[in-house]
Amino acid sequence: MLHDFIYPLVTEGLSSVESAMPRFRTELRELCLFESPSGYKPGLDAVANYLSTLLERLGTQTAIVEDPEGGNALVGTLRGDNPAAPPVLLLCHHDTVHPVGVAEARIRLEGTRFYGPGTVDMKACILLAVYALEVLVQSGYKNFSKILFLSVPDEEITTRYHLDLIYQLCEEQPLVLVMEGARSIGNVVTRRKGGARYVLTAEGLAAHAGSAPEKGKNAVLELAHQIVQFCSLHGWREGVTINAGPMRGGTLPNIVSDFAEVIFDTRYSLLEDRMQTEARWREMMLRQVVPGVKLTLSIEPNAMPPLVATSKSLAMADHVRWIAEDILREKFDPETRGGCSDGCNTAFVGCPTIDGLGAIGGKAHHADEYVELESIPQRTALLAGLIASITTMS
């Protein structure tokens, strides 16, 4: 029964997106020309407005959620005919890590690769989601309650402006499909590590390094000792990684350093691993090589919890497997990732979440970031089929 209408939806959607690829390329170029690094409100707002226009042509109701500092978010709502079906949330972000002024020089097409700032992370992925909705609209499929489309402008930074908006939409307990980039046609991310950044500061006592070094307390030396201790826990539990840097400290070589600071990036598969790592660090801070140096450890705001797979999220991933293998004839490619996404936040509050449903590409955050255009029709058709199948079978 499910196969009878999902199969033509996917195959006909594949054909329609293939025909629409010239338009996709044009719109992707326009999206990438809107330079939208985190915190650059003019560009972020321009992207939100542009996406609103694209969604409205499909009959989607849109709302711009304003923020005076961090940029505007976009919420779209496409309503169906089945109020009993669970809502679906397509979760995106339109901020990038690329500075203003580089887009024009970096945008280019080489064969099937489209290069540009923020292509795979994640402007091509956002556009892919819009085209998947277009496939559903064109097919006449309306056996869903509503499909929510959210793009936030602050995913790439720890100071969040729209995190409460994500949690607000999660109150409806939607099935969450996160539009981060993919590595293959049949790829889906079922698990992600959590991530947190800690700041360790050392406050010592300055003194002349030549005539009175014994009167000083070297903060740089103590911090170096603590960095070695902290990083010794790298891998102490499965999935725990620790990276130190950047760091700064001291003023001049002939002055005993009175201040030093370092940032630690930590990744973990279980939330308890982060808590236990922090507890071990605090024990280590009591073991000093420079007595009297004051050590302070603080966690930066909005640490990401891990995206832990559940029976419901794995059932959603199984729909990806079925569409990839039985309809598109591609290998199913489930994955666990070390990087974080807002899917970590939606999963943490209990929403069934799978990730990595966007476009295939590479070199994210790099000057040569790119997306593979050749795979866009298949990934778009897969997403459209996935939305239809999970709303029907849930």
- Rg (CA only): 24 Å
The CATH homologous superfamily name of the largest domain equals Zn peptidases
Low-confidence segments:
none
Q: Roughly what is the average pLDDT, rounded to an integer?
A: 97
CATH class of the largest domain: Alpha Beta
SSE arrangement, N to C: HHHEEEHEEHEHEEEHEEHEHEHEEEH
Distance between the termini: 14 Å
Label the CATH architecture of the largest domain. 3-Layer(aba) Sandwich
| Strand composition percent | 15-25%
Number of H- or I-type helical stretches: 11
Taking the sheet with the most strands, its summary is: 6 strands, mixed
Helix content: 25-40%
Sheet with the most strands: spatial strand order: 1-2-6-3-7-14
How many domains is the backbone divided into? 2
Number of beta strands = 16
Structural class based on helices, strands and sheet pairing: alpha/beta
User: What would the CATH topology of the largest domain be?
Assistant: Aminopeptidase
Report the principal-axis shape. Answer: elongated
Topology:
Blueprint: H1 2-19, H2 21-33, H3 41-56, E1 61-65, E2 73-79, E3 88-93, H4 103-106, E4 108-110, E5 113-115, H5 119-139, E6 146-152, H6 163-170, E7 175-178, E8 187-192, E9 194-203, H7 219-231, E10 241-249, E11 259-268, H8 271-284, E12 294-299, H9 311-327, E13 333-337, H10 343-348, E14 353-354, E15 361-362, E16 370-372, H11 376-393
Parallel strand pairs: 3-6, 3-7, 7-14, 8-13
Antiparallel strand pairs: 1-2, 2-6, 4-5, 5-16, 9-11, 9-12, 10-11, 15-16
Structure in words:
- With 394 residues, the chain is α/β, with parallel strands linked by helices.
- It has two domains: 2-193 and 306-393, 3-Layer(aba) Sandwich (Aminopeptidase), CATH 3.40.630; 194-299, Alpha-Beta Plaits.
- It is 38% helix and 22% strand.
- It has eleven helices and 16 strands.
- The protein has helices at 2-19, 21-33, 41-56, 103-106, 119-139, 163-170, 219-231, 271-284, 311-327, 343-348, 376-393; strands at 61-65, 73-79, 88-93, 108-110, 113-115, 146-152, 175-178, 187-192, 194-203, 241-249, 259-268, 294-299, 333-337, 353-354, 361-362, 370-372.
- The strands form four sheets. Strands 1-2-6-3-7-14 form a six-stranded mixed beta sheet. A four-stranded antiparallel beta sheet has the order 4-5-16-15.
- The longest helix has 21 residues, at 119-139.
- The model has no long low-confidence stretch (mean pLDDT 97).
